[in-house]
């Protein structure tokens, strides 16, 4: 893997607490997102993953606790902590190229430099030939790549991805996972990837954070020592299965809690986990 | 075979327009000229109207060959255009501000909602009283309801923009004015154009009211004059002309909208392909 660059950041999060209308969502939630690593946060739907990202990104102020980026408290949203959103957030009224260039443009980057950077990123995500298209003219997988490009071109200290491959069909999803892990291995940026899909989580992660349901906090940190570069072959190894099995047991408890709490989304998860358990 | 067929295929939109309008004229003809139903027999029948409309020497002094006809059209079109441009500039501006700033909304919305239901006709006396010329009065009457329709649709357009675009813009480093020009304006554009089409229709409706009461020349004035002179053929010519002009002006607004919102058109095109 490439050397860790200086402008890659790290998060230290301690004792986050947050509630919506009296319902505690996060409670004493502490975690670290170390420099140059791919940290994956996995937890059942509704456990507060998006809430956590919103706080880290600066969209919401937590009711309690601290978020430090390289030792400094974070304020409002900024291009040093970029989010790739759960649902597509590409501007429908801009072409792919305009979308990707947006951050550089509003921050006043000189046109020449901007064009160079945008083109380089578009090549990297394989969208050079589609840069004049509007997002609605792209396939789901291309939209996700454009979104990755729009964030990466700004060279953020931390890249946060909130279930970015949700809603893609299974095939495209697998391709995107491999594509994304390749990008990460090439650049080595600090990444925080959020998902409720355990297989995706283990496949991508350097570190796996298992999140609890109500209140949301980190239950366990699993170091995923699978070799890089990763390809789907890794999913056939014993080590992968051991890690997944361990995480599955931890997660199953939380998913059952969510299930009992009547979270409709949790039905899907328990169902998915049961299938995953039966499949191996 | 496929190619051969294509030559005979009429655009379904055109076909629909022709069928519905010809059907209406036919019904009108049957009611007034064939069946001559009681009371309908007083109406001018389409043959009388079209032959007068197209006659070089019209019996009642109005046809496509008379100068006055075009003068009236010119006056009406000019008034609608002035009022519509004014309604667009002020209405879109106000609507964007209302959607953009919570404080501005809190202070302006109650006033807009109070003034909005007042019909254009009710404004006529005050408009005539205050404005220096009758011409300005008619333009004001034409403007006022169109303006409110534009404001409301623009406001709703801004409100309908998904929060996620604001979040994306702000984390990428936008200043408020970047958000305004890159998210608020384009995001509201589809609703703005819906509003402008409604506004265009309302402008024509209000125009005729204004011209009837406060005007000199114009199609509304023409209709009112010919009502006094009981020249019903001319009234129908005036009405049909209003209909055609309204249809054409709405189509122009639609076309402009499609051109400005290439991303929307292509989305629809893409969905159909
Ligand atoms: N803006 C909000 N207002 C009220 N409740 C919210 C809001 N956002 C999230 N919640 C609730 O907080 C909990 C956590 O939501 P979220 O962070 O979106 O979970 P996840 O991303 O893990 O699925 C859910 O029960 C959700 O209903
Ligand atoms: Mg979420």
Examine the coordinates and then state which fold CATH places here, giving the name of the CATH topology of the largest domain in chain B: MetI-like fold
Oligomer: heterodimer
N- to C-terminal separation of chain A? 31 Å
Mean pLDDT of chain B: 90
Quickly count the domains of chain B: 2
Shape by Cα distribution of chain B: globular
Contiguous low-pLDDT stretches of chain A (5 residues minimum) are: none
* CATH class value of chain A: Alpha Beta
Distinct bound molecules: adenosine-5'-diphosphate, magnesium ion
Following the backbone from N to C, one meets helices and strands of chain A in this order, namely EEEHEEEHHHEHEHEEHH
In total, how many beta strands of chain B?
A: 0
CATH superfamily of the largest domain in chain B: MetI-like
Q: Main beta sheet of chain A: strand number and arrangement?
A: 6 strands, mixed
Strand residue percentage of chain B? under 5%
The CATH architecture classification of chain A is: 3-Layer(aba) Sandwich
């Amino acid at each position: 893997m490439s050397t860790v660059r200086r402008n890659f950041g790290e998060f230290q999060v301690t004792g986050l607490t947050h509630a919506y209308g009296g319902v505690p969502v996060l409670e004493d939630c502490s975690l670290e997102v170390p420099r140059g690593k791919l940290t994956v946060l996995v937890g059942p739907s509704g456990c507060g993953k998006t809430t956590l990202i919103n706080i880290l990104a600066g969209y919401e102020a937590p009711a309690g606790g601290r978020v430090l980026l390289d030792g400094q408290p974070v304020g409002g949203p900024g291009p040093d902590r970029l989010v790739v959103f759960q649902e597509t957030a590409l501007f429908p009224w801009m072409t792919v190229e305009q979308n990707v260039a947006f951050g550089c443009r509003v921050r006043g980057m000189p046109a020449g430099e901007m064009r160079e950077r945008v083109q380089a990123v578009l090549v990297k995500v394989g969208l050079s030939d589609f840069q004049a298209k509007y997002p609605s003219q792209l396939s789901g997988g291309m939209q996700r790549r454009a979104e990755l490009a729009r964030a990466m071109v700004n060279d953020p200290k931390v890249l946060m991805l909130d279930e970015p491959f949700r809603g893609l069909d299974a095939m495209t999803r697998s391709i995107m996972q491999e594509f994304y892990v390749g990008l990460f291995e090439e650049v080595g940026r600090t990444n925080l990837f959020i998902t409720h899909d355990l297989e995706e989580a283990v496949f991508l992660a350097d570190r796996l954070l298992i999140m609890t349901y109500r209140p949301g906090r980190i239950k366990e940190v699993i170091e995923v020592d699978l070799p890089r570069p990763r390809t789907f072959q890794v999913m056939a190894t014993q080590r992968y299965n051991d890690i997944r099995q361990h995480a599955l047991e931890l997660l199953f408890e939380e998913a059952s809690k969510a299930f009992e709490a009547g979270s409709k989304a949790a039905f899907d998860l328990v169902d998915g986990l049961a299938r995953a358990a039966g499949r191996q | 075979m496929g190619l051969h067929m294509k030559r005979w295929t009429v655009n379904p939109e055109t076909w629909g327009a022709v069928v519905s309008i010809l059907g209406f004229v036919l019904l009108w003809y049957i009611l007034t000229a064939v069946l001559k139903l009681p009371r309908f027999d007083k109406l001018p029948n389409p043959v009388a109207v079209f032959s007068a409309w197209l006659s070089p020497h019209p019996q009642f002094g109005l046809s496509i060959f008379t100068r006055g006809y075009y003068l009236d059209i010119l006056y009406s079109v000019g008034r609608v255009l002035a009022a519509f441009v004014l309604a667009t500039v002020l209405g879109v501006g106000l609507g964007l501000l209302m959607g953009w700033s919570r404080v501005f909304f809190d202070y302006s919305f109650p006033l807009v909602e109070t003034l909005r239901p007042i019909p254009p006709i009710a404004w006529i006396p005050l408009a005539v009283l205050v404005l220096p010329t009758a011409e300005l009065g008619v333009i004001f009457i034409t403007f006022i309801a169109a303006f409110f329709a534009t404001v409301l649709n623009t406001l709703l357009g801004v409100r309908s923009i998904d929060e996620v675009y604001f979040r994306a813009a702000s984390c990428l480093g936008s200043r408020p004015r970047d958000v305004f020009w890159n998210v608020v304006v384009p995001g509201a554009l589809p609703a703005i154009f819906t509003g402008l089409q409604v506004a265009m229709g309302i402008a024509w409706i209000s125009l005729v009211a204004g011209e009837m009461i406060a005007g000199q020349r114009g199609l509304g004035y023409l209709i009112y004059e010919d009502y006094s002179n009981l020249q019903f053929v001319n009234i129908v010519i005036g009405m049909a002309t209003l209909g055609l002009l309204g249809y054409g002006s709405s189509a122009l607004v639609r076309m402009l909208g499609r051109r400005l919102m290439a991303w929307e058109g292509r989305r629809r095109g893409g969905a159909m392909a």
